[in-house]
Amino acid sequence: MAAGSGxxxxxxxxxxxxxxxxxxxxxxxxxxxxxxxxxxxxxxxTMQTQPLTGKHFLIFVDDVYEDLELWYPxxxxxxxxxxxxxxxxxxxxxxxxxxxxxxxxDAAIRDIAAADFHGVVVPGGFxxxxxxxxxxxxxxxxxxxxxGKLVAAICHGGWIPISAGVYRGVRATGxxxxxxxxxxxxxIWVDAPVVVDRHFVSSRKPDDLPDFxxxxxxxxxx
Length: 222
Known about the structure:
single chain; 222 residues; Rossmann fold; seven-stranded mixed sheet; two-stranded antiparallel sheet; 8 helices; globular
């Protein structure tokens, strides 16, 4: 019995030693910045960079917004350190996306002042066709454009800058469905994943979102 017990303990110690060796080998493949002497995860210097800290951006929302076209830029801006305010017809109301994803507004559009923000992002979906009829929305976009602040629109989001009358002479893109609207508004149509013309940024569809956000950062000088 004693000999058998001893053999089991020896086998268990070898197994334990083997597991520790395997864990050490796995750990060697992980950058040391992820688990320094403290034993806690620490972000790399790149992850710590937040070039938009202290900046404030506005995003419009209403029912039937294009889900990805709101959330992707919102999270990318927040990741870069920006404070993002989502404004809809009513404050603290949940709006349903085109594909059912909810978004709760932070503020009512009527209470927004362009002076408090460094730019605006306009998602697509059917939402822009409703909000383009709101004179407050159009006034805000005119103020952003007139002050040289970011005006970024993707897909059908271009309807709002069109109705605000700020696209004349601006190189822009959007959903092919609004190409005629863009040209009739005086924009210079470009079929490209992203078009950056000074502080105006535009893209065509959800698949263009990575380029769209890079264009936003380019326009912001980061």
